[in-house]
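Internal tracking record. Fields below are filled automatically when a chain is submitted to the structure queue. Please do not edit lines marked as system-generated. If the sequence contains nonstandard residues, flag them in the REMARKS field before resubmitting.
Queue: standard
Priority: normal
Entity type: single polypeptide chain
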Amino acid sequence: MNIGMSEQHYCIKRLIDILLSFVAILFLLPLIGVCTALIAALHRQNPFFVQKRIGMGEKPFKIIKIKTLYSQEDQLLTQFGLLLRKYSIDELPQFINVLLGDMSLTGPRPLLPEYLPYYNEQERKRHQVRPGITGMAQVNGRNSLTWQEKFALDIWYVDHISLVLDLKIMAATLSCLLQTEHVKPEGLLKEEKFRGNNSSC
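SYSTEM-GENERATED OUTPUT FOLLOWS
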């Protein structure tokens, strides 16, 4: 694996992922339960959204989220779903993905399989590590960034990965969750798909 972290540190990173994710699931279970119960009651549908994403080594896996859309086709958010996305509450079930080994707490966000043909060689480096619940892009602008800016931050993370950097990202994430000025309403409603180096979001 071509990353700047020793095998010992990589094992420590995985251990931290498991321990913190387990604690997070126990602590956040009431919140997840209330949110999913409200979605099921208000919209009479499965409150969970499962979608194929690309992980480490470009291997696909199924990401788990709290559903925030009326339907996958029209991409319209409910007001409750908008609130869940604004504060990233819809991402909380991904701690299960971390426990399963599909994801890490920190790393590049996992993207759709349909984007694979559009990556250049540098952009493919983001798949050298496990994708994360949060990452450099999420604490440096979130969806106010262009695709190129997001990928540049992802690649920088892969080149500079360390336990100290992970801790800084996690600390910055807690701060960002309380400061939503970088989250554009239109970005929450619909994100432009990545179609190569000329794409923006």
